[in-house]
Design a protein that fits this description.
Shape: globular
Oligomer: single chain
CATH superfamily of the largest domain: Hypothetical protein af1432
CATH topology of the largest domain: Hypothetical protein af1432
Largest sheet: 4 strands, antiparallel
Low-confidence stretches: 473-484
Order of helices and strands: HHHHHHHHHHHHHHHHHEHEEHE
Strand content: 5-15%
Helix content: 55-70%
Number of domains: 3
Mean pLDDT: 81
Number of helices: 19
Strand order of the largest sheet: 2-3-1-4
């Protein structure tokens, strides 16, 4: 066997001949799979002949992408049978390598340890902190070849895949399972944020009432509090207020013109339905601010900042519940998020920093600071309108007394739990000491977090507990709201 010569030949061929639209299944992916396979093999004590077969299979497993996309595993085997004799592999070795390659076909069903290692190496990224960048490359690839139509379909498929996928080897389970679950929670959180901005319902009468109430209340916030006192907000609303104060042009006209490009962008980023609903929302807001004779409520700056932000957030939140975006900057954030590693919140924050900086230079630091308070109040109000006071929290618990904790969470809190198999220990000075442990994951409401922690620490004062906010939760055993 001449593996190094084979490696050089295959990587050169993949680098020069793979289609450019394969942004994920490129030569870098093959290199990573080979490296991961070698590391997992070392941890799993696979060596000798099997290690050689594993390395060759990892090197050749995606070579079929040179000719086809769907069914590339079979074509990879065809390449293997053609190439490997030239590098002194026997027929028996080639058959084994092809067997390993076919194990990577989804859904993966390896029948031996070497196959499990190759499958885990192939999907290693699912359990790493680099998941987002790898997944984005795969999204662009699928989009280019027409396997998906857009982000929503992609996100739904990824959530289902992360739910169903599990690693096979003990090493991968220990190293990657917890991070894979965290990636799943993050993806679900992002999906909840997108849904809160875009909506996925037909436009019904209840939506129209929410939309109408939202724009009337937002108009009240603008004309009753912010505009008469030279206050600003974030996003396109803040930009519109800035332009209005600088130029004196009607605010209603500025809001409409400023948001039109983002309405058009919404057609491509989300859907026609969302864009039309957003356009209707912006037009109605313009009409409210122009025709309804709102009275100035106060000139106390603190009251303006707090209550102006509250009513503006209430109006924006109601329109988001109706499935549209009153502020086009959210569409821009979605568009940018899909092409960068930044979150939607980080993108909006960067834009708002720019807005408030301009406000400080033009109207003074005091006005900008009060406007920041307005924005903070508005954003928190939006969160409560969309998520409610009982936002769900995912809690992960690692404890040597997990059996008792599991029982009490289920029977005393009435919560469902999910168990991940892990290993604890590896402390400084005692790295060689470890033990298997059940990692507990459960979903509770924010109001129940303190009670859960008290329960856990009463059993094990040294338990490791961490929580993640979940924007949307459905199914399972979660707290059911009463309908009055």
């Amino acid at each position: 066997m001449q593996f190094e010569k084979l490696r050089s030949f295959v990587l050169t061929k993949l680098e020069t001949e793979l289609p450019e639209h394969l942004s994920y299944h490129n030569v870098d992916h093959t290199v990573h799979v080979l490296e991961n396979a070698e590391q997992l093999a070392a941890d799993e004590n696979v060596n000798g002949e099997e290690l050689n077969m594993l390395k060759a299979a990892a090197l050749l497993h995606d070579m079929g992408f040179l000719e086809v996309y769907v069914g590339h595993e079979e074509v990879s085997c065809k390449f293997a049978r053609k190439l490997l004799p030239e590098f002194e592999y026997t027929n028996a070795q080639i058959d084994r390598i092809c067997q390993l390659i076919m194990y990577t076909h989804l859904p993966q069903k390896p029948l031996d340890k070497t196959g499990e290692i190759l499958c885990d190496a192939d999907l290693y990224y699912l359990g790493t902190t680099d998941y987002t960048s790898y997944a984005e490359n795969l999204y662009q690839e699928w989009l280019n070849i027409g396997l998906i139509k857009g982000r929503q379909e992609w996100t739904e498929k990824q959530i289902k895949f992360l739910h169903s996928h599990h690693y096979f080897t003990a090493t991968a389970l220990k190293k990657l399972s917890v991070t894979q679950h965290q990636n799943l929670v993050t993806l679900q959180t992002q999906e909840g944020k997108i849904k809160s901005v875009t909506g996925h319902k037909e436009f019904q009468f209840n939506d129209l009432l929410l939309l109408l109430g939202g724009v009337v209340i937002a108009g009240f916030a603008l004309q009753g509090f912010l505009v008469p006192n030279n206050f600003f907000d974030g996003g396109m609303t803040g930009i519109s207020l800035l332009i209005h104060e600088i130029t004196g042009y009607p605010l209603a006209l500025i809001i409409l013109i400023a948001n039109i490009p983002f309405v058009i962008m919404g057609i491509y980023v989300v859907s026609w339905r969302f864009a039309l609903k957003t356009l209707l929302c912006i037009v109605m807001l313009g009409l409210c601010t122009y025709y309804i004779p709102y009275s100035q409520m106060t000139n106390d700056k603190l009251l303006v900042a707090i209550f102006g932000g509250f009513f503006l957030g209430l109006g924006v939140g109601l329109t988001m519940r109706a499935g549209c975006a009153m502020d086009g900057i959210e569409v821009l954030a979605l568009y940018t998020w899909r092409r960068t590693s930044f979150t939607i919140s980080e993108i909006i924050l960067a834009i708002n920093i720019l807005i408030f900086s301009v406000a400080a230079l033009k109207f003074g630091l005091s006005s900008a600071l009060y406007s920041m308070l307005t924005y903070f109040t508005a954003s928190k109000t939006v969160d409560y309108v969309i998520e409610g006071i009982e936002a769900y929290t995912g809690v992960t618990i690692i404890s040597g007394k997990s059996d008792i904790i599991k029982e009490r969470i289920v029977h005393e809190l009435g919560r469902g739990i999910t168990i991940y198999k892990g290993e604890r220990g590896f402390l400084p000075g005692k790295f060689e000491i470890s033990s298997e442990v059940d990692i507990i994951f459960t979903v509770i409401t924010r109001l129940e977090l303190r009670r859960l922690k008290n329960l856990v620490y009463a059993i094990d004062a040294n338990a490791f507990v961490f929580a993640n906010t979940i924007k949307e939760a459905s199914g399972g055993i979660i707290k059911r709201r009463h309908i009055h």
